[in-house]
Amino acid sequence: MCRDRDHQRHPLLCIVPPHILQHLAQLRDPKLRALAENALRAIALSERLRGERSAIGGIAPLLATSTAGKQRSICDARGGATLPGAVVRREGEPPTADASVNEAYDGLGSTYDLYSTVYERDSIDGRGMSLLATVHYRRQYNNAFWNGRQMVFGDGDGKIFQRFTRSVDVIGHELTHGVTQYEAGLEYQGQPGALNEHFSDVFGSLVKQFVLGQRTDKADWLIGAGLFARGIRGVALRSMKAPGTAYDDPKIGRDPQPAHMDDYVETEDDNGGVHINSGIPNRAFYLAAMGFEGYAWSKAGMVWYRALTDLLGTASDFEDAARVTTEVAGAQFGTAGAEIVRRAWGAVGIQAAPRTARRKGGGEYADHPGSKRGVRGAAARSHR
Amino acid sequence: MRITLVQSGGFAGLRREVIVDSDRISIGECRRLSELLERSGFFALPPRRLSGLPDVIQYRLEVDDAGRQHQITFDGESCGEELLLLIEQIEKLA
Ligand SMILES: [Zn+2]
After folding, report:
1. What residues of B are in contact with residue A148 (Cβ under 8 Å)?
2. ipTM above 0.85, yes or no
3. Could you read off the pLDDT of A193-214 as tens digits, one per residue?
4. Domains of chain A by range and CATH?
């Protein structure tokens, strides 16, 4: 059986105080050390979820040194719904005869590499969490998702979709949902939900561009290219460059994504249109990347990564994202950088209004540390 | 009996609407639907139960049956297998 170590119960967690755990984590006995390290990780996570960051200050450096780098496990649900299923390929093992298994393994590796190489992030949680994916989930299952602990991929029904591991950006997309869960924690509803989807599309596309070594102007900016079964009229599921143009087919309808706030879709379906309205920030990112030129992951990607990991909070909306990415671009790349990002958001109908202006206008976000809503404050950032 | 099923979300974000009118299906198919509605306890289910997990497929199911009317919104990871069987059966009739 393949089990996610990070989410098992920790026998040491309830009874042993953190300073003893730190001592245990430095011992030679690998079993005891692993147990203590897992318990420390769980403490760090629970502290972060509660926003009580000060308590982990002393533990953080230890955790940073206790990681094992890239650790992938691919499991096979064999058409069932039980997760994670039987482990079929572990880190370092050779390819199997199953294309889904190998695609998932390689895609997780590429996503890990982008985050590690470009953003110096060690895995989903930033602390070396092992990467777990299950393939062959249910039968003819037309979907892929992140269940809060792992990635899950269906085979597709062969009529509309092929297997979901075929596109590396799908794998990058799902893994990024994990990163968002550990960072901004954007709630999966309405505009924060559409931003959650947006960040997954951004880093999904960047993984693909990174693997192919593509510059901004050479990339296709498509999400899910190659997933449609033969006969479906469409190039992909979404286009970041031209939202609303990815497919138009009698069986599945037309790509519903708007490219501008004027066409924002109000709906109760899809958690308030999270996969629909993400088209708006998606196009803003594409425009920003084109403005910066070169490799999209280096400048535009860096700005978006900082916004996701340091500045945005659970209830952040499009205007919050526009403001903080413009601020980060200004801090990292000067006035010209801020101008590129401000213009990109402006082109999709979102003004990057300065923080003070929004407050005067009765902005609804709370801006203090520990807040579950809005944009994270400076005090929260200082612990990171 | 009239059943409306709207599927949305999932990684693909595809929207699909299926309407089943019991007058237009066989008695056997209608009985099978009624049986699955009873087994899943549909009319007593809360109107909204979502897992909040990203990319899971969302369903809105509305049933109007001889004066009894109920609508629920849920997703593929927040519901039991009976409800998924019901969805599968409704989709077969589309
Ligand atoms: Zn997603």
Report:
1. 53
2. yes
3. 999 999 999 999 999 999 999 9
4. 7-182 (3.10.170.10), 190-358 (1.10.390.10)
